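Z., the sequence and structure:
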Amino acid sequence: MNDLLAMGARAGELLKARGEKIVVAETSAGGLVSASLLAVPGASAYYVGGVLTYSFVSIKSLVDLDMKELRAEGIRSSSEPYAERLCRAILAKHPGVTWGLSETGAAGPPNPYGDPSGHTCMAITGPVSLVRTLRTGNEDRVENMWAFARATLDLLVEALEKAARV
């Protein structure tokens, strides 16, 4: 947990320095990304909110994405295109917020949805937009959740550092 807290603190420093705010949508990390960002004293200066979109019902009601429509377009829930859509959707619901961050995957154990355990995609959109896939090769649910959160926070810090250089 300490490494996630350090990453959340680094992201918080970068966001505060730029006077920017972030919203988060996560699935398989189970709130660990948001918890890492919120553990920083003064997080209200940059953290606007977050959602856990863990079911088709929550995806539709919280971020207004319809998985049936996305699947008709060939977009699966644990894919880079979906991570980008989720990221943009949560950001669109928060006018005036600079950054949207998302994570979507399959922590494990094996599931009937077609996504292998240890597979996640994450995206960030804002002054810099990035998308990435992580495959841990692990079926341990809890270990994968930590790995997903770590990778998502890494992506956030990478984007914030790139934005600072622009």
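The helical segments are 2-18, 32-38, 56-63, 67-72, 80-92, 141-165. The radius of gyration is 15 Å.

Let me know what you think.
H.
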